[in-house]
Write a structure and sequence with these properties.
The protein is of the alpha+beta class. Helices cover about 25% and strands about 30% of the residues. It contains ten helices and 16 strands. The protein has helices at about 35-45, 75-85, 125-135, 170-180, 195-200, 210-215, 260-270, 305-320, 350-360, 395-405, and strands at about 10, 20-30, 45-55, 60-65, 110-115, 135-145, 150-160, 185-195, 235-240, 250-255, 275-280, 285-295, 325-330, 335-340, 365-370, 375-385. An eight-stranded antiparallel β-sheet has the order 1-2-4-3-11-12-10-9, covered by helices on one side. Strands 6-7-5-8 form a four-stranded antiparallel β-sheet. A hairpin with an 8-residue loop joins strand 1 and strand 2 (about 20-30). Helix 7 (about 260-270) runs antiparallel to helix 8 (about 305-320).
Length: about 400
């Protein structure tokens, strides 16, 4: 087909502020490719304003118009997008199509990042989290403690998407970036393997208060729950089998939010549904419109009314409540709880901890995975104070965190 490996992903940067950067992907197809690409775009802090998808089942062509800060690391983004594309040979003489056995990623090694500071700089957790995101290190758990003499000990359990944190060069890169951010406040910084027993503990306890389970993690349609996100535009999902002889047409209309296209793509991926053609865009009023022509993995339409209703209900729920946010009491203290569903592949939603720390100054964080209603969730429990009283009303804390996570600032 004449497509070189390095040309499978092309990025045309915006020429001036306000213009779109255009990302083009031209490669062999696989179920869930759109989800994997949108997840990486979200991980790099970019927002998809428009998109076009087309495939013949073997080869696909995708175009994303994205917006974001002009200082993005485009070369690194291109490399990460190439990594999830089904492999093409560099010489373009042979194409290696996607095979299902390659889909399941191995569990990454966990490392302990430990550093001491003379004092707790303002916004410490967010500054550190921002650096770790730029380094492509994923935070699994955090513990911040203050010693009697006022020094601060920070423990970050992280994994490395590059799988190089065991090397001296990668460790020096990470510690050097952290020292540049923390400056004179830092006393020492060390990185070491966490060990298999720690990795097991990071999966977290299966225990959560029953009151949280019944409300926060409910899979019922959000209209039955008062704490769904308040949006100006209700989510509309309709299906039609009359427009195409071989595909089911799904039309979605809803208010835009951060990662919306990713939420649609991950839902279809978990249902093992293929997109043959799709178009989506955000209008000037802040609403998003999607037209998708889909089929089941067997290449047939979705004609069963029960399957249609199940898919529409799940899409409505995922778009109305892509994240669950609540403010609770933990004894005398106040706790912010944020939860997001995990893909069947085991990947959590990108940048959740980054956005939480950007919205709030956190003191203690627990990140764990929980199986609830036969579904895996990534749960963030953030202790906001130590019993001295929280400086903001609970509804303001919840609103602040929600706006940052949903991109509604």
């Amino acid at each position: 087909m004449g497509i070189l490996y390095e040309d499978a992903v092309l990025i045309k940067e915006a020429e001036k502020a306000g213009d779109y950067t255009v990302i083009t992907v031209n490669c062999p197809d696989k179920t869930g490719l759109g989800c994997d690409l949108c997840r990486i775009i979200l991980l790099f802090g970019l927002s998809i304003a428009r998109g076009d998808i087309s495939t013949d089942g073997k080869w696909c062509y995708l175009v994303f118009w994205v917006v974001g800060k002009p200082t993005r690391r485009w070369d690194l983004l291109k490399n990460r997008l190439l990594e999830v594309c089904p492999i093409c040979s560099p010489a373009a003489s042979e194409i290696y199509y996607y095979r299902p056995e390659f889909q399941q990623p191995k569990s990454p090694d966990v490392f302990l990042l430990k550093f001491w500071c003379y004092y707790d700089p303002k916004g410490l957790l967010h500054d550190v989290t921002k650096v770790l995101c730029e380094l492509e290190l994923t935070v699994k758990r955090v513990k911040v403690s203050t010693a009697p003499d006022g020094r601060v000990l920070d423990l970050f359990f992280v994994t490395d998407s590059r799988e190089l944190l065991h090397t001296k060069e990668r460790q020096e890169e990470a510690t050097g970036r952290l020292k540049a951010v923390l400056g004179d406040a830092m006393i020492s910084c060390d990185i070491e393997p966490a060990g298999p027993e720690v990795a097991t503990c990071l999966q977290g306890s299966s225990f959560l208060p029953s009151a949280i389970k019944e409300d926060i993690f409910s899979l019922e349609l959000p209209s039955k729950h008062p704490n769904s996100f308040r949006t100006s535009t209700p989510v509309s999902v309709t299906v039609d089998n009359c427009l195409s002889p071989s595909h089911t047409h799904v039309q979605i209309f809803c208010q835009d939010h951060k990662g919306l296209i990713y939420d649609v793509m991950r839902t279809l991926k978990d249902y093992n549904i293929q997109i043959s053609y799709g178009r989506f865009f955000k209008n000037p009023k802040g609403n998003c419109e999607l037209d998708l022509f889909i089929m089941q993995v067997d290449g047939k339409k979705i004609v069963d009314p029960e399957k249609q209703n199940a898919l529409c209900s799940r899409l409505r729920m995922e778009l109305d409540r892509p994240l669950r946010v609540d403010v609770l009491s933990r004894g005398p203290d106040t706790e912010l709880l944020v939860a997001n569903p995990v893909e069947l592949s085991g990947r959590g939603r990108p940048l959740v901890f980054h956005d939480i720390t950007l919205a709030l100054k956190t003191l203690d964080v627990e990140i764990a995975r929980h199986m609830i209603h036969d579904r895996e969730w990534e749960v963030y429990r953030i202790l906001l104070d130590d019993g001295d009283g929280c400086p903001l009303p609970r509804n303001e804390i919840e609103e602040c965190a929600t706006k940052k996570l949903m991109g509604w600032e």
